[in-house]
Amino acid sequence: MQDPGEDSNTGSPLVGRFRLPLAHDTVREIIRKVSPIAVTATLILLALFSLFVGPVRISWSSAWYIFIAQFNQILNSALTGIHHVISQVPAGVSLFSNTGSRYYTMPEYDIIVQIQEPIVLAAVIVGAALAVGGSTVQGIFRNPITEPYIIGISSGAALGATLTIAVPQFSSDFGAFSLQVNAFFFSLLVVYITYFTSYRRGSVPVTYLLLTGVAISIFVSSIVAFIIYTNTRLQSEVFFWLMGSLQQAGWADIYLVGGIVGVCVILTYMFSGELDALQMGEDYASSLGVRVEFTKMALLTLVALSVSACVSIAGLIGFVGLIIPHISRMLFGGTSRKSIPWSVALGAIFLLLANDIAVGLYAERVVPVGIITGMIGVPFFLFIMYRLSGGAYHA
Amino acid sequence: MHITLELRDMSCRLGEFHLNGITMEAREGRILAVAGTNGAGKSTLMKAICGNVRTLEGEIRINGTDLRSMRQRDKATLISYLPQEIPRPFNFTVTDIMKTSRIYMDQDMGVLKKSLETCGAAHLVNRNFESLSGGEKRIVMLATMIYRGSRVILLDEPTTFLDIDKQIRITGILRELRKKGYTILVAIHDLRFITREADDLLLMRDGETVSFGDRRNTATRENLETTFGIRLLDPATHGGDFIPEYYGEDYLESHNPGDASGE
Q: Which domains does chain A have, with CATH numbers?
């Protein structure tokens, strides 16, 4: 993962003021070696654990058989597909056949496969998209306090969602998915209005973009507030959506949003070098041959697409896009080649954790996860910043 | 000596600012100092040469090839440009910083370390860039320009904000590069560097050339006074040094602070 030249770090960002009875370099070496494994293991274990956080208690043993049953089902549908093309392949097999099959019919099977798995995957996808979006936007704006919502995504999505609930004409076209579709397209619309309002003589200066984004967001949010104010019957419904929640996610959402986010994150990663050069200043990047305006527009489009898609299924979950990129940079270094992949993992972990708390806090109801992200995120972030940044944020 | 960079009647525009009919040549193994007041067009000139600002008229040639017909990415292999502002990326090590200069080329840790060594900064290789002093940052950025591997280097005010010791170190690095045959263009406000160190001079004022040529012929009292809008003491009575009248009695009497702001 890391090339050997970077390994003899003497001013590592990791352990600025850590004081442990071990030699400084040894601690640093341990943290650097352990962090990738620790983060990856945490992600996998937490995702598995989160499957069982819910109102219904499911025993570990039935969970095991449910997974086998699900595996069999996926395997069999794949085999059936191949069987149509190559007839030698059997149309169906059943591994552990004497134990697995009867679990299809159990209510626990539906709870795990139809309810919990989409929620866990939604947490992973939304967390990853927000964190990568934050990393990208902070890089483009060269500003540590920006997040993906700042270019108008959140207010646009809120407008789309509010209109769907308030105005019947907006909800007819896509049936049950009207809210998601409207949230998605309205957030893209507001992003592009922001972008083209900031256009000055062939370029989009980031300061204009930032200020225009803030201004237009406030404008659109005011419209949303006005609509909510004049329709008191909507207030609880819209309020819940604005706070953010993963509980409505289903497999259809996961396929679509997961696909969009996956493609956007991979494309963003392919711009790692350009994003690093942009962080060094636009003149510097341009002199290297980076097509600055094209790169900015492409990256912002990717952020807008992936984050809008997430907002459409999960509402407005704040804070992930602001702090996770920083934590990722503090732990793994600031270059995009590292900060993007680790933002994916850390964003997923953070949102899984927040969602587990949101679900587990009360037996009878689920707290909007957007409330939890701020509550657990801020103290954790302040701790990381003061103890681990190693002077990277002093200047 | 071999002419590497050549401008013929080059004009360009950046926002409301115009640069008119600049003609100059930069040669291998020589330092060309670009001097003038703030807003004279030094930075715009450098941006035009490296291709960040499009030229309206005239030619920019490097080793005889017209730069305007070249892709920006190919220009980047011939010319390095160090902007005036010190970059502030999030949590980059010195190595990370240097690697950004070769995002479209292969990285080579050996060359990277050698570039730092040339600048006497090998010990900084794994330091966090933000933890360096202003002078160290500038030196690292100079090493980054060397690491890029192009033989023509444009430096926009590399000594601004630095203490005298760091200014001397930067000058030392530039001498070293000159010896190695680099072509160096440096926009600079240091009168001593302009009149003693540079090989060639381009003096600019309000987007136009005041004078261009070999330092010995160009750095005259008259040219410098026109360029900077100041008065100099007679060099003959000050050991050949150009000293602004600021240090003399008359200057302080004739310039009250209210007048000094106007350019």
A: 18-50+116-388 (1.10.3470.10), 56-105 (no CATH)
